[in-house]
Amino acid sequence: MGSTFALAGGVAQLFPASVNFRVRASLWTLAIGAVVLSIVAVASSRSDWSTGQGRATAQPVQFSHAHHVGGVGIDCRYCHRSVDTEAFAGMPSTQTCMHCHSQLWTEAAMLAPVRQSWANGRPLRWRRVHDLPDFAYFDHGAHVQAEVACSTCHGEVERMALTVQAAPLTMRWCVDCHADLPARYGLPAQLSCSTCHR
């Protein structure tokens, strides 16, 4: 009869009994694998690798907040001019940089991109360090007017030689802060989805 086996009552068995064990083992392996894969996916989505927390972003100029803010004492609003009133804090223009660097460190090699930008009239292409997804709306002006300190989200930039993303910027992190508004700032909690998703 080839690969079939006779059973009591004359019905032929198509597969050997060991196949039942193999099928059960395969199903359990798939189930356990799916659980492990889910755990790994959730853990990696909350990891620094995924959120970008602690990561420095390459910039056209090696700008040091530790020097400019911590050492010299330049206020955030000098470079990020629209932070008080608009959603986007703004990036420093070449003119802002040249206000000082037309007189200080005029031949420094690291400032060559600033001088080239000034000479050819093309703006520097700063890269955002704290960059939320397009589906999340964040208004710097509203946060500054509510007296939320810059360091709440950006960390102690006055100590950063290279600016890194200080917070995970995950939805959970933002929601936790919004839920804590009454305790921290004496403001009503803002937990409506439309606050950030418009």
Rg estimate, integer Å = 29 Å
**What series of H and E elements makes up the topology?**
EEHHHHHHHHHH
- Which overall shape is indicated by the principal axes computed on the Cα atoms? elongated
Q: What is the spatial order of strands in the main beta sheet? A: 1-2
The beta-strand count equals: 2
Class based on secondary structure composition and strand pairing? mainly alpha
Please report which band the strand proportion falls in: under 5%, 5-15%, 15-25%, 25-35%, 35-45% or over 45%.
under 5%
Q: Kindly, what is the distance between the CA atoms of the first and last residues, rounded to a whole number of angstroms?
A: 70 Å
User: Number of helix segments?
Assistant: 10
- The helicity comes to 40-55%
Oligomer: single chain
Give unreliable regions as ranges: none
Instruction: Tell me the count of domains.
Output: 2
- Profile the largest sheet: 2 strands, antiparallel
Mean pLDDT: 90
